Amino acid sequence: MPNIIEITDFAAPELDVYARLNENQLLNRHEPEKGLFIAESPKVVERALDAGYVPVSLLLERKHIAGQAKDLIARCEGIPVYTADFEVLTRLTGFQLTRGVLCAMHRPPLPSVEEVCAGARRIAILENVMNPTNVGAIFRSAAALNMDAVLLTPACSNPLYRRAIRVSMGTVFQIPWTFLGDETTSWPSEGLRLLKSLGFRTAAMALNDRSIPIDDPQLMTEQKLAILLGTEGDGLASGTIAECDYTVRIPMSHGVDSLNVAAASAVAFWQLGSR
Known about the structure:
Radius of gyration: 21 Å
Low-confidence stretches: none
Structural class: alpha/beta
Mean pLDDT: 91
Number of helices: 12
Oligomer: single chain
Strand order of the largest sheet: 8-7-6-11-9-12-10
Distance between the termini: 46 Å
Largest sheet: 7 strands, parallel
């Protein structure tokens, strides 16, 4: 039988994860083994469960118990299922729930770069992409357009932040990813050296005097290619570009010099992704 719990006390500590903990508190950097994240909407929760993520509790509108969350509740047997009417949940969380379902889940240990890249032919590298909306959009494009994995430098927004998960439509659970080093690791030198030791040639998406067009035939002949995308506004650091094997541009028209990093990622992945 499902463990359905009617919300009567907004201050109940069991609801802190949904109502009072911010993303950094959920991440729990000091005790990462206790870290949590929030998956939002039935489809996204389903994808997380399919990928093996472990649920802690559910928060949902009462009408969904026998409706669109019925199968999720069955899959999450034994965990608390907190419920109330829509208006109560909106007051509790401070925002309208996407499709009326939230699920708190454990953060698993991150795999190594070597594990993530094993068998990969095309990977995306995100350098200091700090907007979770952009991170989520890039993951969705990566999953849809033939990227085998995603690596992020330590300053990037975490892919398991709620907004990143929501924008990605849960594809953060479908494509392998990890962080490329930590705050003590030298980027780009050590990180690029590791990629090259794994057999990857590197392509920096950037504009400079030696940029080649994204449809240059040489790029498609590379057996293993890492596509680097930089932070919003400034793009990749000059030191990163200098150490890459290629500098690649997307041809533009009407005087436009560049695309938003999420839009640029979709173009790059479509052209350069593994087939």
